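Checklist before submission:
- one chain only
- standard amino acids only
- sequence pasted in full

Submission:
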Amino acid sequence: MNAARAATALLALWLTGSAPPGTPNPQTGYADCAPSQIDAPRLRRAILAAARPRGDTRRFFADNVVVVAPAPLRDGPPDMLAYVAGPSICGSGGCNAYLFEGGAPDRVLGRITPARLPIRVLDSIHEGRRDIGVTVNGGGVRQGYVGTLRFDGKAYAGNPTLAGVARAPADAGTAVIGLPGQAAGQCRLR
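Returned file contents:
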């Protein structure tokens, strides 16, 4: 196991503590999602369907840190963004993120990999939805940047590291999911 993968595995293992809903966990810093914030059972099913984990899906939310937040990408119900980090998910370039349509969380609008925090909602709009800014660093990238993922009318582009992906300033837009304290509205889904 290379050093980056080992560090990611240790971080993910350290992040598996629990705390009452709404209270920041002393280990992770993320508050657990309160029932009033999200439809947790439906969102869990949508994340499992999008992530397609191997093995025992009953352990997915215990073995990984899943942080979710509403993402205001258009008028209407906010879409939901989910960031998943864990030893079998993350690599040296980052982890995975999934975007679900507001009002229809079973519809996947994007599978983003690799993804690093923070993930931002940008001011620019394509095909009626705001662009997403994903931090890119590691995995061979020497100088980090924010890759802009655009909506094409059906889905968001999924890889912020590809050639031709526009770059945004590091402080552009609003952080939707970040490290603890970087984004309002984020919570840990168990």
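Reviewer check: Confidence is low (pLDDT under 50) at residues 1-23.
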